[in-house]
Amino acid sequence: MSRAPITKAGSERLRSELERLKSSDRPNIIAAIAEARAHGDLKENAEYHAAREQQSFIEGRIAALEGLLSTAEVIDVSRLGAGNRVVFGATVDLEDEDSGEAVTYQIVGDLEADIKLRLIAVSSPIARALIGKSEGDSFEFTAPNGVKHYEITGVRYVA
């Protein structure tokens, strides 16, 4: 079984979520189930069924996070020393050569990818096109809406 790479910051984010689920969300949902159970007939008790569904989601997420974290390989990107070459963990500044729009992404493990936070999975098409390139290089990749052309304007490694 291969170990999935994850950044130190991503590992800390997932551990924080796991701690919140165990210490806050789980006890709250147990209390909500007890309160709903006290209302009587469970067959027609929507609060009870909603609380049980939420409990199922929380327990599933806890199990998933524990499994992911137990097999993940934490990589401290500040120690990689790859210079201006793009490797796992790099924060990359890009400029769209067609529109001139600037964007910044960090290449992270599949477990922690979140496009809203500009964290792209190492297995994504854009990350695969970036790996091995250096600052100043131009590249293209096929996005869902067509071929995109970018120039790498900056590469840095921050913890």
Tell me about this structure.
The protein starts with a strand and ends with a strand. It has two domains: 4-75, Transcription elongation factor, GreA/GreB, N-terminal domain (Helix Hairpins), CATH 1.10.287; 77-156, Transcription elongation factor, GreA/GreB, C-terminal domain (Chitinase A, domain 3, Roll). A five-stranded mixed sheet has the order 5-4-3-7-6. The chain has a two-stranded parallel sheet with strand order 1-2. The protein has three helices and seven strands. Strand 6 (138-143) and strand 7 form a beta hairpin. Helix 1 runs antiparallel to helix 2 (46-71). Helices cover 39% and strands 26% of the residues. The radius of gyration is 21 Å and the shape is elongated. With 159 residues, it is of the alpha/beta class. The model has no long low-confidence stretch (mean pLDDT 87).
Strand order of the largest sheet: 5-4-3-7-6
CATH superfamily of the largest domain: Transcription elongation factor, GreA/GreB, C-terminal domain
How many domain modules? 2
CATH architecture of the largest domain: Roll
Largest beta-sheet characterization = 5 strands, mixed
What's the CATH class label of the largest domain? Alpha Beta
Rg, Cα atoms, Å: 21 Å
Distance between the termini: 27 Å
Using the coordinates shown, work out and report the CATH topology of the largest domain.
Answer: Chitinase A, domain 3
Structure classification:
alpha/beta
- The tally of beta strands, per DSSP, is 7
User: What is the ordering of alpha helices and beta strands?
Assistant: EHHEEEEHEE
Helix share bin: 25-40%
Low-pLDDT ranges: none
Number of helices: 3
Strand content: 25-35%
Query: Can you tell me the overall shape?
Result: elongated
Mean pLDDT over all positions = 87
